[in-house]
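FAQ: What does a ligand-bound record look like?

Like this one, built around magnesium ion:
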Amino acid sequence: MTRKKGLPSVLDELRRNLEKLKLKAMARHLDEALEQATSLEQGYIAFIAGLVEREVLARSEASTKRRTGTAKFPAVKTFDTFDWTFQKGLNVQLVKDLQSLHFIDQGRPVLLLGKPGTGKTHMSIAYGLLAVSRGYSVRFFKAPVLLALLYASLADGTTDRLIGRLARVDLLIIDDLRHVPAKPEYATLLFDLIEARHLKRPTMVSSNLSVQEWGHVLGNPALIASLVDRLMERAHVINIRRGRSYRTDGPDASPDRPDDLTPEEA
Ligand code: ADP
Ligand code: MG
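The answer part, i.e. the structure of the complex:
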């Protein structure tokens, strides 16, 4: 009798204590877990294990969500929506092997080289999202935005801090290195950043230019040649230079596209 009477207050206190300990998911799911334990006639261990698992899951989901936000992907693109048959020259085996993300732990760069529309950005976002879901920190930049950010840091003397911060990101994605109105400092800034990550943390670079052309674009061919040397030393190269554009040749552009596509897909 006494025990029954005391139970709600014990339960309330437990909930308060869980909240105090910031075990929010356990507090939230307490009633439901108790009901489940009663209906399934679970033992104490199964009950507490189930409740703790809810907390672990909630935290991992929150952390993935946080890291997805920090990564600043321009869109959501995954390998689930990637048409593996579209690009005839694509080394599908390599693209799939890289999904293991061993290259991140090994600090090996990945270069995606190919004409516009061949799926470079799609793939780099897809790798980035995979990495985020497996607990890595990721930061995605359009190359001109990154260069402008590095350049701006010179004005207030925060370059070292910025490069230090970017050097700690598990996977840095520099998307679409192309012809930009170059500033003389761009080459040094990019070199310093790549140098800071070299051998430790991988950088994924996509470009519609060949690596030989990067020097002309960034304005310091000699320095960029050593940057390319550093990247190429251990890089995986996904080469789709002879690929066709999904934008102009893909199903969305094709006149005999099936009529049953949803408006978003069409
Ligand atoms: P790139 O970065 O090489 O210029 P994108 O990755 O931006 O090309 O691709 C252009 C568009 O075509 C994007 O909407 C992308 O999702 C889509 N796309 C490209 N290749 C594929 C593919 N193999 N399967 C599905 N969609 C693709
Ligand atoms: Mg692109």
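Follow-up question: can I read anything off the structure? Yes, for example: The longest strand covers residues 171-177.
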